Amino acid sequence: MPMTAAEEFGNNQDGTLNQDYCVYCFKDGNFTKQMTMDEMITHCAEYSDSLKDENENSISKKEYIASMKAYFPTLKRWKQQ
């Protein structure tokens, strides 16, 4: 999720903004949902009814899932050490 406004960022246990995670994923220093990467992709795909790519073209749920499977492993939470 692109985060530009303070209210879009999650927060740490001490109440400070967390620059790595959004408000939907991270609250009070913890992840809001304990999920595997595949479970998170399935969860996010539930909201794919009106998705658009960076050029404002509509994309299908299948394309959205494929893009998440490519992108999520690069995110801090899912990155392989």
Q: What percentage of the residues does DSSP assign to strands (E)?
A: 15-25%
Biggest sheet layout: 2 strands, antiparallel
Percentage of residues in helical conformation:
10-25%
Count of distinct structural domains: 2
What's the mean pLDDT score?
88
Q: Rounded to an integer, what's the Rg over CA atoms? A: 14 Å
| Order of strands, widest sheet | 1-2
Structural class: alpha+beta
Low-confidence spans: pLDDT under 50, at least 5 residues? none
Measure the end-to-end span: 22 Å
Order of helices and strands: EEEEHH
Q: Quick one: overall form? A: globular
What features would you describe in this structure?
- The chain is of the alpha+beta class and 81 residues long.
- Helix content is 25%, strand content 16%.
- The protein contains two helices and four strands, in the order E-E-E-E-H-H.
- The strands form two sheets. A two-stranded antiparallel ribbon has the order 1-2. A two-stranded antiparallel sheet has the order 3-4.
- Helix 1 packs antiparallel against helix 2.
